[in-house]
């Protein structure tokens, strides 16, 4: 599940074993476990985003091309 950690979500700090992604039109920041990178469903989201944005973001996170509800739905299925 994607998490928004108070203080962490709004700062540049990311806990060890996690990374930041920016989701949706408003680029809402989520901090998620790196283990999601091994999940085929999450890899599909990354593939869509790579086609549109590449893998760089000015603040160091990844931008995910989907709306927040879809992202939360996908990440809620990952464990």
UniProtKB/TrEMBL annotation:
BP GO annotations: response to auxin
Pfam families found in the cross-reference section: Auxin_inducible
UniProt keywords, alphabetically: Developmental protein, Growth regulation
Domain of life, per lineage: Eukaryota
PANTHER family: SAUR-LIKE AUXIN-RESPONSIVE PROTEIN FAMILY-RELATED
Similarity-based family: Belongs to the ARG7 family.
Annotated protein name in UniProt: Auxin responsive SAUR protein
């Amino acid at each position: 599940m994607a998490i928004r950690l108070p203080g962490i979500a709004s700062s540049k700090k990311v806990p060890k074993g996690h990374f930041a992604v920016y989701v949706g039109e408003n680029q809402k920041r989520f901090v998620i476990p790196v283990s999601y990178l091994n999940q085929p469903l999450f890899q599909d989201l990354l593939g869509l985003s790579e086609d549109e944005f590449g893998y760089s973001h000015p603040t160091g996170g990844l931008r995910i091309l989907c709306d927040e509800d879809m992202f939360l739905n996908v990440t809620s299925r990952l464990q």
